[in-house]
Amino acid sequence: MSDHDFISGSKPIGIERGEGVSLYTADGTEYLDAGASYACTPLGHSHPVVVDAVQKQVANLTFVDSSFPVESREDAYAALVAATPDGLDSAWFCNSGTESNEAALKFARSATGNSKIIAATRSFHGRTMGSLAATWKDKYKAPYEPLAGDVEFVPYGDSDELADAVDDETAAVILEPIQGEGGINVPPAGYLETARELTDEAGVALVFDEVQTGMGRTGSMWACQNAGVTPDVLTTAKGLGNGLPIGAVAVRDWIADGAASHNATFSGGPVVTAAVHATITTLVEEGYPAHAAAMGDYLTTELEAALGDEVREIRGEGLLIGIELKRGANRVARDLAMNEQVLALPAGRTVLRLLSPLVIDESEADRLVDALHAVIAPDTDAES
Ligand code: PMP
């Protein structure tokens, strides 16, 4: 069962195949993916380079334990370390975003010798006992208490409250550079820099959860690069394997040296790392982060013109866009799917989130704007 239940009770869509930003049902109906793949397919569906790499790998060697060197893992590792910000020179593969944050919090504790974790209100970091403890929503946590202990929440975006919370008992400050599940919340200018200064002064690990913001989506490979801030630990997953399940944790040397270790049987398996290598090299070589920046600007400008006063705010960076609605986001997402063949996800009660594959072009963006206009602002003149 999914948390995104806006479609339940409606006629099932039954997606059979995908190509680029399009998804198709068995009867050939086409849907525009404006977030249905949840930031997991930055290169679009069935990208030929990824498909080819995965098919070859699965045919040659599907699995061997990570104690034994395998070319696809080594290539993916090198591509990942090259693509992460300078200073993050070691990495671990794992199987999901949740696990990457779980590992990040463990690493921060082992490297600092401290236990306190500072997380933000409206954060989402995952559903295991540690990552869930650092996640804000009570609804997710209450049935499972007690979770991992010693987590303190501070209001997201408030530098003063963060300064009050960071002390010499603190192991980590964990933040999303832009909050995803919490409603596409962009922090005030200077917030991430302040977090960097405070954690540097106190010897605390600064963890950026880039599970939703990373892999080129915000116009840079990582959202923290837009703010010019490098964390001690960066976590990634979702788009890392263009739809195959894999996560990673990239760290500075002092974290790696602090007895950090994390592993699981399937971590960095040959097939998923073949996907990672193909995804990162294609993203970088074909300049998709810059394309995401340009398309994000285009889409935001067009959306402002088409939706205007019918929405409260349009915010985000690149192709991570939140539309703060004047009514429920579930209803809007359902109407988009059923009436306009556009698939997007809510992020909270009143925010519709757009997370199209980065390969979206202007005509596809225009179609998305027209669909949103038809659902959100049907009584006003279309601008686009
Ligand atoms: N962190 C963030 C910022 C996320 O958006 C998500 C997933 N929505 C996660 C962690 C958890 O990732 P996964 O579902 O791959 O475990």
From TrEMBL:
Keywords: Aminotransferase, Pyridoxal phosphate, Transferase. Belongs to the class-III pyridoxal-phosphate-dependent aminotransferase family. The keyword Transferase applies. The lineage of its organism: Archaea, Methanobacteriati, Methanobacteriota, Stenosarchaea group, Halobacteria. It comes from the Archaea. Its cofactor is pyridoxal 5'-phosphate. InterPro entries: Aminotrans_3, Aminotrans_3_PPA_site, Class-III_PLP-dep_AT, PyrdxlP-dep_Trfase, PyrdxlP-dep_Trfase_major, PyrdxlP-dep_Trfase_small. GO terms for molecular function: identical protein binding; pyridoxal phosphate binding; transaminase activity. The keyword Nucleus does not apply. This is Aminotransferase class III-fold pyridoxal phosphate-dependent enzyme.
